[in-house]
Design brief:
By secondary structure, the protein is an alpha+beta fold. It is 41% helix and 12% strand. The strands form 2 sheets. A 3-stranded mixed sheet has the order 1-5-4, with helices on one face. The chain has a 3-stranded antiparallel sheet with strand order 3-2-6. Helix 1 packs across helix 12, helix 3 packs across helix 4 and helix 3 runs antiparallel to helix 9.
């Protein structure tokens, strides 16, 4: 008869092998009485949504240097926060980050609520994030289920129902294992197990603390799990980006509407994104087709941007957007797709000067 998975076995492994992460309080420090900062846990969880740990680390360290607590972030300029977020993607997260920080300061005296329901009432905090903050910051026995946890549970129980259909069952299995003792450390331990041992490809079953009770290991089906329903092919949308440079080197940029993709971010003026985009230049100019496309993939579609460039005089009057002086123009502050446009266009613009 196969053994039953024990949270204590995983916690013993975590005490020895926990990842060193800039937002994490180590199990040794936690045992010594150090408590996580809810602000840092919240910030890390928002950044980690649909983004890897490796990508988030430098952003987290920069954010917490610039804005070390929730009050500092709440007082920050929107444009500064959006610029620092550039490159992380899913820009609605950055807008909600600011909204949430300001609600915490104005409505909660600068302190995050200490219940899952209170956390989930804040902007940008959903069921997963509220559970993660509750468990990790406040050591409450909430069940935290991300992609790593789903993979561990599917293999531990040899569950072959494909995702996303399997999500409720996997959550129930995870909930049954969540302990009352050290639930915060346990939540992080399961995620660490999935990230470092029970990986999507070539899981290291020989050194897994749950290898004995793992049903998929016994059946030899580890590599097949979790199963996933076939993805629908992503459509390809087209668009036009207009890159205008004034004689003094200033670059024309506009802030995109708050709602929608890249909401609130600076970028080059452009057309709609569709199968048949309509030309929509932001000002009268002798536009030249760069002859290259900026290509980028979003969650639900591929994008191909045709790039038009123009050199304009000092009296140019754009219908939308504004010219940004060369000394204050920071390509690194642009979202990734717009940086791709810049990278393709800047050589031609240098030739025009």
């Amino acid at each position: 008869m196969r053994e039953t998975a024990q949270p204590g076995d995983l916690l013993y492994w975590y005490d020895a092998h926990a990842r060193d992460l800039p937002w994490r309080v180590s199990p040794a420090d936690r045992a010594a009485g150090v408590r996580p900062d809810p602000y840092r846990i919240w910030l890390s969880e928002i950044m980690l949504q649909q983004t890897t740990v490796a990508a988030v680390k430098s952003y987290f360290e920069r954010f917490t240097t610039l804005w070390p607590d929730v009050a500092a972030l709440a007082a920050a300029e929107d444009a500064d926060v959006m610029a620092e977020w550039a490159g992380l993607g899913y820009y609605a997260r950055a807008r909600n980050l600011l909204k949430c920080a300001r609600v915490v300061v104005t409505d909660h005296g600068g302190h995050f609520p200490q219940t899952r329901a209170g956390l989930q009432a804040l902007p940008g905090i959903g069921p997963y994030t509220s559970a993660a903050i509750s468990a990790i910051a406040y050591d409450l026995p909430e069940t935290v289920v991300d992609g790593n946890v789903e993979r561990v549970m599917a293999r531990l129980h040899d569950l072959h129902t494909p995702l996303p259909e399997a999500k409720p069952a996997l959550t129930a299995l995870a909930d049954a294992l969540t302990p009352q003792t050290r639930p915060g450390d346990y939540a992080q331990a399961v995620m660490d197990l999935g990230a470092t041992i029970c990986t999507p490809r070539s899981p290291a079953c020989g050194i897994c603390p749950w290898r004995a009770p793992c049903a998929a290991r016994a059946a030899g089906t580890m590599a097949d799990l979790p199963r996933k329903s076939p993805k629908k092919p992503k459509p390809t949308w087209l668009g036009i980006a207009y890159v205008a440079q004034r004689d003094d080197g200033a670059i024309l940029l506009e802030t995109r509407p708050d709602k929608g993709l890249l909401g609130g971010m600076l970028g080059f003026p452009g057309s709609d994104w569709s199968e048949t985009p309509e030309p929509d230049p932001p000002l009268e100019a002798e536009w030249q087709d760069l002859g290259e496309e900026a290509r980028h993939t979003f969650t639900h579609f591929h994008l191909r941007l045709r790039i038009m460039v123009a050199q304009v005089g000092g009296n140019a009057a754009p219908r939308r957007g504004a010219f940004h002086p060369r000394h204050s123009y920071r390509p690194a502050s642009l979202p990734t797709v717009m940086r791709k446009v810049h990278d393709l266009a800047h050589g031609r613009l240098r030739e025009m000067l």
